[in-house]
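Methods — Computational structure assignment.
A single polypeptide chain was analysed. Its primary sequence is given first, followed by the predicted tertiary structure written as structure tokens.
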Amino acid sequence: MTAFARMTLPAGGKHWVLEVRSLNQRYFELSLRVPPSVYPLESQVRQLVQSLMRRGKVSLSIAEEGQNGDLLSYELDQDQVRAYLSSAKKIKAKFKIKGELCVEDIMKLPGVVKEKAINGIHTWNWTKLSLILTKILNKAILHKEAEGKKLEQDFRMRLDRISGIVHQMEALVKGNQKGYFEKLKSRLRELLGEEKMEEDRLYREVALLAERSDITEEIVRMKSHLELFRKWLSKRGEVGRELDFLCQEMNREANTMASKAQLFEVSQEAIAIKSEIEKIREQVQNVE
């Protein structure tokens, strides 16, 4: 799922442009592109974004633009640069440290580059910034929730398909139990040839083989997993890990059914279930 939100705020004939983009992934990753006036608040910005958007690859940008769309210019605080260079010289002399500051190092230091004031509106305080960020992040979250509802509909559709396939498998197994039992008995007699076996022992051996190929338990567990999956879909909050775990369990049951089933039709249905589970799991990996 992806999310996008944009806000434009007037600022003395110019305007601030804030954009949030989010792409689903299992972990949280934040990329910031902000003006120097926001640098002192960067740590608080990161904490706020992560508290509201716990997972995903999030990109947040804040830029001040003119009416024609051109970015405002910046100015160098020469006094601040001199202060940094003087301090660096003292540190080198006192601690015998070698090395030189380059332009890139100096430009990254706080307070070196400042935005030119526009009618006095060029600074941010945390109270103002946090309110605006909360508003735009909530807009992006609403976008994510709308996509999440579509994703939920897709999940429920695929769960219904799996339920239908499981029902067909159950009917196939029940309808062929007697025939499969007789087939095993006939096959065992062929393998024995003229060697005789007591009727009771023959039935025990056939029953044991039939039990090993029975998938009733797997069908029951699969139904239980499907029911639990639907319950988790109806809950609010973070459910991605639980849904991912259920996908693993359902896939395990499908693999067992495919390996145990003696009917070709049942094996085909198990493969169809695995296909639906894989499609669900591809999306579940990104669900919070």
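Note: Residues 115 and 270 are 64 Å apart (CA to CA).
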